[in-house]
């Protein structure tokens, strides 16, 4: 009997939470910052009254919009750093050679790998299928994928350092040192 009263009270608390959510939604007017999308999203989420109130308060005060604008301003101000960082990251992923990691080797699927399991599951491999394309890449470009990754990662890292201003002091040092070395060589040869 006692457990039944507990379950009845949890049902009552759920219905009272729904009633509080509905009342809170009715009291919270839409503002310029509070878009229909956010309102619809918040209404669909299974939130308790306190959580809903906190989120609606953030929307109402414009904090969510301010955070989005701040993130976009950061991206706009640092777009080249972000671009070259992502380029370097792509190069590092290529160095690892994800095709080989899946098990597509230079001589075919590597025994016990995901590629071997996939081939066992599909049986006869159709020409032009995703498996066939990945196997072709794995066999033909087994060594070139990491080399391309090395070039992309290296180029991205150098460009990122240049954009971030790290290379400018190093560039001045190289110029000064090479000019001094060249002058020293010219004086010795005359």
Any chance you could write out the topology, listing elements then pairs?
Layout (H helix, E strand, L loop, with lengths): L1 H26 L8 H9 L4 H13 L1 H15 L1 H18 L1 H5 L1 E2 L2 E2 L4 H9 L7 H11 L3 H21 L2 H23 L1
Helix pairs in contact: 5-9
Membrane topology: Multi-pass membrane protein
InterPro entries: IFI6/IFI27-like, IFI6/IFI27-like_sf
Keywords: Membrane, Transmembrane, Transmembrane helix
Give short descriptive properties of this protein.
single chain, 190 residues, mainly alpha, 2 domains, two-stranded antiparallel sheet, 10 helices, 2 strands, 79% helix, 2% strand, flat, disordered N terminus, membrane, transmembrane
How does this model look, in words?
It is built from 10 helices and 2 strands, in the order ααααααββαααα. Strand 1 and strand 2 form a beta hairpin. The N and C termini lie far apart (109 Å). Strands 1-2 form a two-stranded antiparallel ribbon. 79% of the residues lie in helices and 2% in strands. The N terminus is likely disordered. The protein is an all-alpha fold and 190 residues long. It has 2 domains: 70 residues, no CATH class; 91 residues, no CATH class. Helix 5 packs antiparallel against helix 9.
């Amino acid at each position: 009997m006692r457990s039944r009263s507990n379950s009845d009270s949890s049902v009552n608390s759920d219905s009272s939470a729904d009633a509080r959510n509905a009342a809170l939604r009715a009291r919270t007017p839409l503002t310029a910052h509070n878009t229909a999308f956010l309102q619809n999203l918040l209404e669909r989420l299974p939130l308790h009254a306190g959580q809903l109130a906190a989120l609606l308060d953030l929307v109402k005060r414009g904090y969510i919009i301010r955070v989005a604008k701040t993130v976009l301003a950061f991206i706009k101000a640092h777009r080249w750093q972000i671009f070259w960082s992502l380029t370097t990251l792509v190069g590092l992923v290529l160095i690892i050679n994800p095709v080989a990691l899946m098990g597509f080797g230079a001589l075919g699927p590597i025994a016990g790998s995901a590629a071997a399991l996939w081939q066992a599951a599909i049986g006869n491999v159709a020409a032009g299928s995703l498996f066939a394309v990945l196997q072709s890449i794995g066999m033909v470009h087994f060594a070139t994928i990491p080399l391309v990754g090395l070039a992309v990662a290296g180029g991205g890292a150098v460009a990122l350092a240049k954009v971030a201003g790290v290379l400018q002091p190093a560039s001045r040092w190289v110029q000064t040192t090479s000019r001094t070395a060249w002058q020293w060589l010219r004086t010795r040869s005359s």
